[in-house]
Known about the structure:
- The chain has helices at residues 13-24, 64-72, 100-104, 111-126, 138-145, 147-163, 172-183, 202-215, and strands at residues 5-9, 28-32, 44-47, 50-53, 79-83, 87-90, 93-96, 194-198, 219-220.
- The protein is α/β, with parallel strands linked by helices.
- The strands form four sheets. A three-stranded parallel beta sheet has the order 1-2-9, covered by helices on one side.
- Helix 1 links the parallel strand 1 (5-9) and strand 2.
- Helix 1 (13-24) runs parallel beside helix 8.
- The longest helix is centred in the last third of the chain and has 17 residues, at 147-163.
- It is elongated, with a radius of gyration of 21 Å.
- The two termini are 28 Å apart.
- The model has no long low-confidence stretch (mean pLDDT 93).
- The protein binds flavin-adenine dinucleotide.
Amino acid sequence: MAIKNVVIIGGGISGLTTAYELTRRGHHVTVLDRRETLGGLARSVQIGDRDIERYYHFICGGDQNLIELIAELGLSARLHWRPGKTSYFVQGRMYPFTTPLDLLGFSAISLLSRIRFALHAARCRQMRNWQDIEHLTAQEWLLDTVGSEAYEVIWRPLLQIKFGRYYDQVSAPWLWHRVHRFSQSRHSLWRPEQLGYLEGGSQVLIDALAEFIVAGGGKIQGR
Ligand SMILES: Cc1cc2nc3c(=O)[nH]c(=O)nc-3n(C[C@H](O)[C@H](O)[C@H](O)COP(=O)(O)OP(=O)(O)OC[C@H]3O[C@@H](n4cnc5c(N)ncnc54)[C@H](O)[C@@H]3O)c2cc1C
């Protein structure tokens, strides 16, 4: 196999894992990033004497490649699994939203809408053929499956928070994958999902990848 010199633009998790795989195969990599700090969206910010994740990140039970990568880098002991806890804040009231029983008591929407919401979540869990919904936006798919009440109260605010003014252009497969991935962290329908967190945050993974790349002869801008 011919050894190649590869320049990777972007030192987020995609760029660093690509550089990691190439380094493992013996290629010479150079990672360039326009920021001084590596990690992209998964980077940390320093507050006082602590590094805090800029955005929250959790790992799901089905994120097999990521879990394997963490093991390869010798970080498994720093990966902790904790029961997730979700709540919805609607019209001045906080509703627990972790288990099916919580959903049953979610009186911000009608019982029929709660049932439609639950059926949609169960369908996402089972479904594999996302190609069938590729022609739909998440909004179109949700209005058709959960109905307008559950969409307006639960889904639309979440999509708006994440995507801003583009919220109605997000594809249905994105939403399916989001729910499907999350459901992989639930051992049974009645128990809360188990979510993984790296002690020290995603920065620990970013730093370990960077160290491996540099130790393998690669260059990272500024190092
Ligand atoms: C609030 C929030 C929560 C999230 N939670 C999760 C989660 O729990 N689990 C999960 O899996 N994902 C989560 N994500 C998504 C995850 O953060 C991203 O999918 C992932 O970090 C993207 O990595 P990336 O390397 O593809 O892109 P980025 O992280 O965007 O990295 C791109 C890098 O390229 C650099 N760059 C861009 N243009 C140039 C240029 N012209 N020249 C040089 N450098 C350049 C940037 O500075 C950046 O460092 C979350 C995202 C957010 C915002």
